[in-house]
Amino acid sequence: MPTAPRAPMPTGAIVRSQFDTAADLANLDAAQRRLLRGPFRSVSVDVPVRMDDGRIEVFRGYRIQHSGARGPCKGGIRYHPEADEEEVLGLATTMTWKTALADIPFGGAKGGIQVDPRTLSVRELEAVTRSFTGRISLLLGPYRDIPAPDMGTNAQVMAWLLDEFSRRNGYTPAVVTGKPGALGGSLGREEATAQGVVYVMQAFAADGGLRLPGSRAVIQGFGNVGAHTARILHEAGTRVVAVTDVDGGLHNDKGLDIPALFDHAYQRRRPVPEFEGGDRITNDALWRIPCDWLIPAALGGVIAKDRNVDDLDCRVVVEAANAPTTPIADKVLESRGIPVLPDFLVNSGGVIVSYFEWVQNLQQHPWALERVNEELLRKITTAYQAVRDLRRAKNTSWRTAAYAIALQRVAEAERLRGH
Ligand code: NAD
Questions:
Q1: DSSP 303
Q2: Largest CA distance in the chain
Q3: Could you tell me which residue, 29 or 205, shows the higher pLDDT?
Q4: Does position 5 have pLDDT exceeding 50, yes or no?
Q5: Which residues have a Cβ under 8 Å from the Cβ of 258 and sit 6 or more positions away?
Q6: Which ligand 1 atom sits closest to the C-alpha of 298?
Q7: What percent of the chain shows pLDDT beyond 70?
């Protein structure tokens, strides 16, 4: 459960700026803007916890439901010292666009507790989770709001959340996704985001004269998304030439030994730069390495003007992380002719498979892994094609086209509900 330091530009600010640009293009009126910019419901709570040394500590927690126009609110819970209201609202907003673009029957939400989970014992982590769940449980439910893991939380945390909610309301597996398999979690959920990243890359490659086999990828971040993306790309024949984590990284022009690095850094939780088999690099140096696919899969705001955007030497940026590109850097990349495949398309595989998990829980009918991946491929490729076609028709950026589709779907749902 590694956590990341604060993004150089806050996610909330990036998402707000992107929304304003998209709302102008979609000609939303003032009331629609107000409705879609702010949260439907924003709750902040004190989370009291008895620590191992006997004292009571109180953490700040949030659950922000941005929109429930298209279905129950859906979004992860983040444990991070900087998970403040603005950050959580930005991420909740992105979830609304993500679920709309994927065309799954959910709205957007996010939760967070301002705590560094690395400083907690396992018992304290459980106590924090149960206390927080108790405080927000009135908001939750399979047809109200369905949390999932995010940075700093994992399947075990979701298991405690499920237990605490079910204690009050009876056994309710569909109230949370990203659970362990033994409690109704879906096959394929752990690697779903990365699998979706690679499906989008495959679709883009098929359209654009690129091929995954033999192409070169550079990845920032070697957690759930980065490590599984590297593994799946390696299996597809892509040369992953550089990766970094919070401690720095490695570069090998012939391609890194990804299966061994996956075992070292992802399974055994060792720092990437401690692995043998490449030259050590810093996170700053990563951006200058020539490649076809540049895949930020860690923090928001990492591709920025006056930092690295002029140095990027790639054919396409694949936003696996949330909000990795600042709005100004986005414009620079557009003027340089480097396409940016936007976060809420690229990393939607996680929430798409969360939707499958919810369906399986409601029906009490588990799916085989093949079915999960087939339906994920179909859903995410359909979303990709809709963005691609609109982008071509309007001669606009991938991000703008994706926003136009998502905003239009959410605004239409609000209109039909009478708002
Ligand atoms: P994670 O916590 O599993 O891994 C994060 C990785 O980033 C770790 O390898 C960490 O060392 C690295 N990192 C942290 N700070 C860094 C820094 N300053 N420089 C370089 N690397 C750094 O997180 P994750 O679940 O893989 O999520 C990564 C990104 O993808 C986040 O932006 C997250 O919001 C987004 N995302 C994740 C999912 C999912 O299903 N996990 C879904 C959608 C979007």
A1: B
A2: 63
A3: 205
A4: no
A5: 230, 231, 233, 234, 240
A6: 7
A7: 98
Tokens read off for 375:
């339906």
User: What average pLDDT does this structure show over 133-160?
Assistant: 96
CB 197 near ligand 1, within 6 Å? no
Helix (H) or strand (E) holding 390: helix 369-394
With a 6 A CB cut-off, is 354 part of the ligand 1 pocket? no
**Cα first-last separation, the chain:** 40
Asked if residue 265 lies in contact with residue 257, where contact means CB atoms within 8 angstroms, the answer is: no
Is there a contact between 87 and 323 (Cβ–Cβ < 8 Å)? no
DSSP character string of 158-172: HHHHHHHHHHHHS--
E strand map for 176-281: 216-220, 239-245, 248-251, 279-281
Nearest alpha carbon to residue 294 among 269, 323, 315: 315
Is there an atom of ligand 1 within 6 Å of 348 CB?
no
Sign of CA dihedral 343, 349, 352, 354: negative
Match 């070697």 to its residue by tokens.
222
pLDDT of 232: 98
Our measurement of the distance from residue 135's CA atom to the centroid of its chain's CA atoms, rounded to an integer in Å, reads 25
Nearest CA to ligand 1 atom 33: 321
Interval between CA 299 and ligand 1 midpoint (Å): 6
Asked whether the beta carbons of 106 and 98 are under 8 A apart, the reply is no
Query: CA 354, 355, 358, 364 torsion: positive or negative?
Result: negative
pTM over 0.85: yes
Copy the structure tokens of residue 164. Answer: 């605490």
Query: Buried b / exposed e across 383-402, counting CB within 10 Å, b at 16+?
Result: bbebbbebbeeeebbbbbbb
Q: 218 CA to middle of ligand 1, Å? A: 15
Determine if ligand 1 sits within 6 Å of the CB of residue 322: yes
More confident residue, 237 or 418: 237
Query: Atom 25, ligand 1: which residue's CA is nearest?
Result: 224
- At 13, the pLDDT band (50, 70, 90 cuts) reads confident
Instruction: Write down the residue that tokens 């998304």 correspond to.
Output: 225
CA 200 to chain CA centroid, nearest Å: 14
| Ligand 1 centroid – CA 296 distance (Å) | 9
110 noted as active-site residue: yes
Single-letter residue type at 77: I
Phi/psi for 118 (5° steps) reads: -70, -15
Q: From CA 205, how far away is CA 313, in angstroms rounded?
A: 18
